[in-house]
Structure formats: structure tokens, C-alpha cells
Design brief:
With 148 residues, the chain is of the alpha/beta class. Helix content is 37%, strand content 29%. It has one domain: Rossmann fold. It has four helices and eight strands, in the order E-H-E-H-E-H-E-E-E-H-E-E. Helix 1 packs across helix 2.
Length: 148
């Protein structure tokens, strides 16, 4: 285990999909071994037509449910855990800014590859985080899903 992570913060962005539990288990296991804080975050992407601070009650309720499930995983591993909900125009920007603000030593996030017209597509968030992260990034990859 690298001393680089001892006592650091592991940032885990969660989307509320099937990969959340798996990525949380891996992050929790690593946090336990490295004596790190696990910080889970759910980003609500606010469309341009709304003010960034506008209330998004349905999205906040969904985010709270996602983070409650994450807390259950953290409790199973008896690790130090915190969580939060962010509102932003772009998820990738919010994740990188949160990693900087919290001094995260590692970002662990899931990616869903999609096969679109014969080409792999990771969306916008993961590539942005990989290009701009202030720390190491571990990617958990789900099974390939074909998009029609």
C-alpha cells in the first residue's frame, strides 16, 4: 500500500445507477486499508435555462437516496465516511473542483462504456476528470452496453 494515500481522502462520485454499489465497495475496501476518509458526492447537473442555485427537489431527493445507499456500504466496512450533493452545469467540473477543495488523494469513479455506431463512448464527465484531476483517478468499468 502506498504511503501516498495514508490518511487521505478518496472522492467517489455517484450517479445513482447499477455501478454505484460496486464502486463504493472497492472504494470502501481501499479506504479501510489505507485509513482514508471516503467522501461520496452526487452531482446534480442544472440545465442552462435554470439558475444554478435553483431548487431541484426531485433531483435532491434522488441524490439523498443515492448517498444513503453509499453510507450503508461505508457502514458495512466501518470506515470514516462523509457525503454531499453538488449542483453544477457540468459534472466533471464539479468533481474536479471538489477534489481540489477537499485535497483528495484519489478519485474513484465508474464509467459506463456505450457502443454507439461501432465506437466506444465514455460521455463527457470521465474524460474531463481524467484530463483535469489534481490526483490519481481509478476507473471502475461496467459491462459494455449497446446503444441503438
Amino acid at each position: 500500500m502506498s504511503e501516498y494515500y495514508k490518511g487521505g481522502t478518496i472522492l467517489v462520485p455517484l450517479k445513482g445507477n447499477s455501478s454505484d454499489r460496486d464502486v463504493m465497495k472497492h472504494a470502501a475496501l481501499f479506504a479501510k486499508k489505507s485509513h482514508s476518509l471516503l467522501y461520496a458526492v452526487h452531482v446534480i447537473v442544472v440545465p442552462q435555462e435554470f439558475a444554478l442555485e435553483s431548487e431541484q427537489p426531485d433531483e435532491v431527493a434522488h441524490g439523498e437516496q443515492v448517498l444513503e445507499e453509499a453510507a450503508k456500504v461505508a457502514q458495512e466496512y466501518s470506515i470514516e465516511f462523509e457525503s454531499g450533493i453538488l449542483q453544477a452545469r457540468q459534472a466533471g467540473v464539479a468533481i474536479v473542483e471538489e477534489a481540489i477543495e477537499r485535497g483528495a488523494s484519489l478519485i474513484m469513479m465508474a464509467v459506463t462504456f456505450r457502443d454507439r455506431r461501432g465506437e466506444f463512448n465514455m460521455g463527457k464527465t470521465v474524460p474531463y476528470v481524467l484530463r483535469n484531476a489534481p490526483s490519481r483517478v481509478w476507473i471502475y468499468c461496467e459491462e459494455l452496453q449497446k446503444v441503438q
